Every structure is written in structure tokens, then in C-alpha cells.
Amino acid sequence: MRAPLRWVLWDVKDTLLKVRLSVGEQYCKEAERMGLSLNPLEVDAAFRNAYRNYSRRYPNYGITQGLGGQSWWMGVVRDTFSQCRVQDPALLNTMAHNLYHNFCNAENWEVFPDSKKALESCSSLGLKQGVVSNFDSRLETILCVCGLLTHFSFLITSEEAGVAKPNPVIFDQALQKCGVPAASVAHIGDHYVNDYLTPRSVGIHGLLLDRNSKHNQPEVPQEHRLSSLEELPSWLQQHRN
């Protein structure tokens, strides 16, 4: 007999909400406030390079190397602008500090049109909800200002957990908080490895959200895919009991 579903876990970024402007545009707005004129495309490319380098050298916000979310992100911002020929250390620090805190503001995030209804449908079915996200400690503030926080019984960020997806330990931590068997838990996210394969490896029902039909893995059956969160309620109804 199939275990009844009791919990739904969520990824956040690019699942429930997304950054409103490109990183290049966001960073250029801050640079402009400081009297600088930079090219958003150049800044975007520099950011991708800095982000890739920091992720490789200091995985999961460098917490095992004595960093943390704020220090890590400020380093990424400084490195990004340095690649764009901004050299003044005080200016780099000011922009890095401002951008780190600016990303807590609701105007920098766009909640997908189907997100709130999907969260409400889970609650109306009596399901509890939590978050498992590769994110830093700003996540609670961001979810609050975006009007989503009250839907969740707990949040697990990779910074606070000390491990990041695709390490299955982060889902083990979530299961401890849920207090039910893995077969009574679903997880929804947009990343094939992090949000589909990894939760399924510990027995959680992984659902792959594929808004833009970018995932072409043939081994993901149709019943494990969502093209939008509007399809979620019918899946939940099937697995509720």
C-alpha cells in the first residue's frame, strides 16, 4: 500500500520566484548610483566568471573555509567589478555591501504567477510545507517580503545546513524535520540533479518543474514532470491518500 503524502518540500529560486532583472542590469544600476557607467553584458559575463570561480574555490559559500554567505557574495561582487576595471577598494566594498543587502528587497524578485496558488493548494489539502534550497541566510527575509514565508513550517538553506544539494544529507535533515517516512514527502524544483535525482535517492517523490521545456532527460517519466505549477494540484490529489 502506498504511503499517503504528508509534506511538500520546495526549491525556491527559479521554482517559486526568480531574479527580476539580469545580474548585469542589477549590478550596473548600483554602479550608476556610484557614478560609474558599465556595460550590462560585460558585467554579466564577469559575474558568471566570478561566480564559477568562487563556487569552485569556496563551495557552499565557503562555510568550511571560514567565509559565509555575506563574505562569499561580497567577494563575488568585488571580483565582478574588478574584471570590469573598477579598482578602488573602498568603492568595491561599498557596492558589494549595498548589492548584498539590496537583494533582500522585494523589487528585485518576481514571484511566478502560479506559485501562490500552488502553495495554497497544498495547504488546502492539509499538507505541510518546507523549503530545501541552495541559498544563503537571506532566504527567510526574501520569502517574507515576497509574501510566501507563511506557507512554510521550516526552511533549510545550504548555508545553515552546512551541505548543499546534490548532497543527500540536506534532504536527510529535511526528513528529520518532517518526522514522516520519505515516501510521504514530495519535493518540487527545477534542477534535474538537485531537485529530482537527489531527493529520489533518499526515497522522496521528486518532481521536476520544467517551465521552459529545457529538460530532455528521457529517464524522467511524464508523471514526474510539471510544465507549470498549475499541474501540481491534480498530482497531489492522486497521491494524497
Automatic annotation (TrEMBL):
<dbReference type="InterPro" id="IPR011949">
    <property type="entry name" value="HAD-SF_hydro_IA_REG-2-like"/>
</dbReference>
<dbReference type="InterPro" id="IPR044924">
    <property type="entry name" value="HAD-SF_hydro_IA_REG-2-like_cap"/>
</dbReference>
<dbReference type="InterPro" id="IPR051828">
    <property type="entry name" value="HAD-like_hydrolase_domain"/>
</dbReference>
<dbReference type="GO" id="GO:0005634">
    <property type="term" value="C:nucleus"/>
</dbReference>
<protein>
    <recommendedName>
        <fullName>Haloacid dehalogenase-like hydrolase domain-containing protein 3</fullName>
    </recommendedName>
</protein>
<comment type="similarity">
    <text>Belongs to the HAD-like hydrolase superfamily.</text>
</comment>
<dbReference type="InterPro" id="IPR036412">
    <property type="entry name" value="HAD-like_sf"/>
</dbReference>
<dbReference type="InterPro" id="IPR023214">
    <property type="entry name" value="HAD_sf"/>
</dbReference>
<dbReference type="Pfam" id="PF00702">
    <property type="entry name" value="Hydrolase"/>
</dbReference>
<dbReference type="InterPro" id="IPR006439">
    <property type="entry name" value="HAD-SF_hydro_IA"/>
</dbReference>
